[in-house]
Amino acid sequence: MLVLVTGSTGLVGNNVTRMLLGQGHQVRVMVRDPRIDRSLAGLDVEPVPGDIREEEAVNTAMIGVDAVIHSAAVVHIGWTKEKLMHQVNVEGTKIVAAAALKQGVRMVHVSSVDALGVGKKDASANEDSPREGKIPCPYVVTKRAAEDALREMVPQGLNVVIANPALMFGPWDWKPSSGRMLISVVKKQPPLAPRGGGSTCDVRDVAAAIITAIHKGRVGENYILGGENLTYFDLWKRMAAITGRRPPWGRLGPLMGMIAGLSGDMYGHMDGKEPEVNSAAIKMGSQYHYYRSDKAMEELDYQIRPLDRTLRDALIWFRANGYLPALDGSEA
């Protein structure tokens, strides 16, 4: 099977690419820079230069493939980059979908749980929960718009399945993305954790389910790929225990959170580059992004490995690849 993977240098895409190769499949990767960077170095992939916003390039990359896994996206929790996110997350997805429709191949679209409704501390959301409650920052808005566009194309014959991963950790996080949280705990544990919580999973389990969706996913359906639901305070304590670092003191209070968020907004406005700590991120961090993955477990053979194992493997990978100092014996 020949599979086209977009976003192959990102956390999900890189794990998907490596897993496909490990299963004996051929992989074509669409990259903006034809020079292979270290995330793909040594991998037997077929690189095709181009950008998902370029219709001709996408059509060329799609020729002869059996399936496409579309994981390319701009990810930023904040109020900026709206134009870029719309171009990539929405218009780029529509271009990939149109090419898949033209070639008549299965498309697996990697979305996010942020496109779904928000869960509650005592009630996890699922694929059918009302799409309400999420902070309407550009990332949330564009991921939802991309899904809406895909569903509109299903009656036209688009053979698409939508995967909704939760908060992922694991190896091959070259950027890094969510792994920044683990790195920050190792380097300097922030004293206060966000007030909310999330569903935390292993990117390798997510990648396996995405590949399975090529054959088993139902057309037009969403599949949540989540994991253990826990507060960010508890997650950071787990990270601290594994890394031998001091645990956080407590949770960020509403007033302090508001001040931190507004300060980040003001700094970004003056500096021209929005920091990770901004009012959108603070508000998202105060919610409980709890989800159930029953549907994926039943239909995509999705499995959830123990969180501590995931965090340890991610830590080992970050150390081995120079993101963190070499092991000093403090980790168990």
UniProtKB/TrEMBL annotation:
The EC number(s) this enzyme carries: 4.2.1.46
GO molecular function per UniProt: aldehyde dehydrogenase (NAD+) activity; dTDP-glucose 4,6-dehydratase activity
Bilayer-spanning residue ranges: none
UniProt enzyme class: lyase
Swiss-Prot/TrEMBL keywords: Lyase
Protein's UniProt keywords contain Disulfide bond: no
PANTHER family in UniProt: NAD(P)-BINDING DOMAIN-CONTAINING PROTEIN-RELATED, PROTEIN YEEZ
Protein name: dTDP-glucose 4,6-dehydratase
Gene name in the database record: rmlB
